[in-house]
Specification:
By secondary structure, the protein is of the alpha/beta class. The protein has a single domain (31-76, 84-141), classed as Alpha/Beta hydrolase fold, catalytic domain (Rossmann fold). It has helices spanning 11-22, 36-47, 102-110, 130-141; strands at residues 30-34, 56-60, 88-93, 115-119. Strands 1-2-3-4 form a four-stranded parallel β-sheet, sandwiched between helices. Strand 3, helix 3 (102-110) and strand 4 form a beta-alpha-beta unit. The chain is globular and about 35 Å long. The two termini are 21 Å apart. One of its GO terms (molecular function) is hydrolase activity. Keywords: Hydrolase.
Length: 142
């Protein structure tokens, strides 16, 4: 997991941190992101997909940046698409009080090949849903 200084909430700092974290890892990597970190993982793929390509991504409570979501410098470029065949799991809890549940619908439309997991409970931290998340991570690693 990348570590950032308290003032490191810029896209540039996060992309550099993600790159540094991925550098020593090989092709057996599964990217797991939560909240802001998952939106930065997607932005990493938009700017320059990592090499080697990871086994897949599991993204939790991902905020959608842009005209149909939150405003900020973190929006994905028009025409964004993940590499074909990259498995992606999107998780979001209906009772998340941080990232609106509707952001999941935006990503489902943007990433039509993604497996979408809508959880009724778990909040922003996925309290009672971590077993489902862990099964998706394990499925990518097997």
């Amino acid at each position: 997991m990348p570590r950032f200084p308290d003032d490191g909430m810029t896209a540039e700092a996060w992309l550099a941190g993600i790159d540094a974290a991925l550098e020593p890892l090989g092709p057996e990597t599964v990217i797991v992101g939560h909240s802001f970190g998952s939106s930065m993982a997607l932005l990493r793929f938009a700017v320059l997909p990592p090499e080697p390509m990871p086994l897949g991504m599991v993204l939790l409570a991902t905020p959608f940046w842009g005209s149909e979501g939150w405003q900020g410098e973190y929006a994905l470029p028009a025409g964004f698409a993940l590499p074909p065949g990259l498995p992606v799991f999107l998780h979001h809890c209906r009772d998340d009080d941080t990232v609106p549940f509707e952001h999941l619908d935006r990503y489902e439309a943007l990433l039509p090949g993604a497996v979408v997991r809508r959880h009724e409970t778990g909040g922003h931290q996925f309290g009672d849903q971590l077993g489902t998340v862990a099964r998706d991570v394990a499925a990518l690693g097997s």
